[in-house]
Specification:
The chain is mainly alpha-helical. The protein contains 7 helices and 2 strands. The longest helix has 17 residues.
């Protein structure tokens, strides 16, 4: 689900500042190493980009059945390669790398074709799902904020599966993914 920590016009952070350096050293790098994300680095793009265009691009990619591939490539581009995912030229190049039509993608961003879809997704995240931090994981009625270990996640999943046993109701969204059902 799209979520922006500092949506436009809020000021974004600078990687050369103490806040980001300390947060990455104390939290992000240890978690990244723990999960095998050795290439993950504090992006050098300064100031950090607003991500609304990248998320509008996600709406385009999702509509074309490429939402997961697009998101994976954006993650790599920003957190492993320090690319500016707020720049239309960069986004268009990356979209082409995952197989999206670059001209149609660029046009969608330049005309803000998916602005409303992105705004609706943000509204859902902020006001309906009450997401305030990343990551946030919802399993049934349980909401976990922040990074959790494998044992905690497995325990929550086991509990939810146990709660569903004996009901004739299928699980919500059991056959749906980011790219649709």
């Amino acid at each position: 689900m799209p979520f922006e920590l500092r949506p436009y016009p809020n000021e974004t952070l600078r990687p050369e500042g103490d806040y980001l350096k300390n947060a990455w050293e104390q939290s992000v790098y240890p978690f990244a190493r723990r999960f095998g994300l050795e290439k993950m680095t504090l992006p050098a793009v300064s100031p950090q980009p607003h991500t609304h265009l990248a998320f509008e691009g996600f709406q385009f990619a999702k509509e074309h059945g490429m939402g997961n591939a697009y998101n994976h490539r954006m993650f790599q581009a920003f957190f492993e390669e320090s690319q500016d995912i707020g720049d239309v030229d960069v986004l268009t190049k990356l979209a082409g790398e995952v197989g999206l039509d670059q001209a149609a993608f660029r046009n969608a961003l330049e005309t803000r074709h998916y602005k409303e879809a992105h705004q609706q997704a943000l509204h859902h995240a902020y006001h309906e799902a009450n997401i305030q931090v990343v990551p946030t994981i919802r399993v049934g009625s349980t909401v976990l904020e922040g990074v959790r270990g494998q044992a905690v996640l497995e325990g929550i999943l086991d509990e939810e599966l146990a709660n569903q046993k004996g009901t004739d109701e299928p699980g919500e969204g059991a056959a749906c993914g980011m790219d649709g059902c």
